[in-house]
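Quick one before lunch.
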Amino acid sequence: MRKQIAAANWKMNLTYQQGEKLLDDILDAKIGLAAHQHAIFAVPFPYLLMTRSEVEDAKNYHAAAQNCHHKKSGAYTGEVSVEMLHSIGVNYCVIGHSERREYSAETNAMLAEKVNLCYDSHIVPIFCCGEPLAIREAGTQNDFVAAQLKESLFHLPTDKIKEIIIAYEPIWAIGTGKTASTGQAQEIHQFLRSVIAAQYGEENANEIPILYGGSVKANNAKELFSCPDVDGGLVGGASLVAADFIEIIKSLK
Ligand code: PGA
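Model of the 2-phosphoglycolic acid complex:
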């Protein structure tokens, strides 16, 4: 079975102590994950080592960075490179979250550079795509997300694209309490998979987990994840509450 993933995106929330307690509470629930199920915690940079050591003994639990710089190294004060993440044993990195695209002016071309650096350091990119409300209202969301994939990912060879995790996050659903319906989620996830299949073949496209993000909660995760092309979620708000994220992990197929 294709990998199913519950990924927490803490964003710029929680103190170190609160984060540690949250991880303790989630790990104390001892949710045994099947071989195809994974839980990933995308935490602020200063919490990565702590998170890594917290999840060390739990099978299929991982730490992730929320971002990395698009240049390899150099005079970029305040930035964190992929090589730095690799050197502390981080194996996953969120790339191109809509908040970074918006507030840090990240372009598809810049994200392609980040993706390449991740592969160079054996870090799996969790690549985010998704349309703003105006695009959804105009009905052109498919073209919009297809362009995001093509411009940032389709230069990759097959053996690399096969490793990627994609997160579809409609911007109008992030932090708004508005969730895509299961019909909307399944439709666009299936479309994304068909775009990948057209480039890399169906067999490869079928291996790539496509997560849904945007107001995933304890009470809607199971329904969303039950869609055949929805392989789990990237979760913001609800990942900050232990009981909620526990429920979301338990909702994985
Ligand atoms: P949300 O955030 O679950 O709070 O909507 C999702 C995300 O931005 O990854």
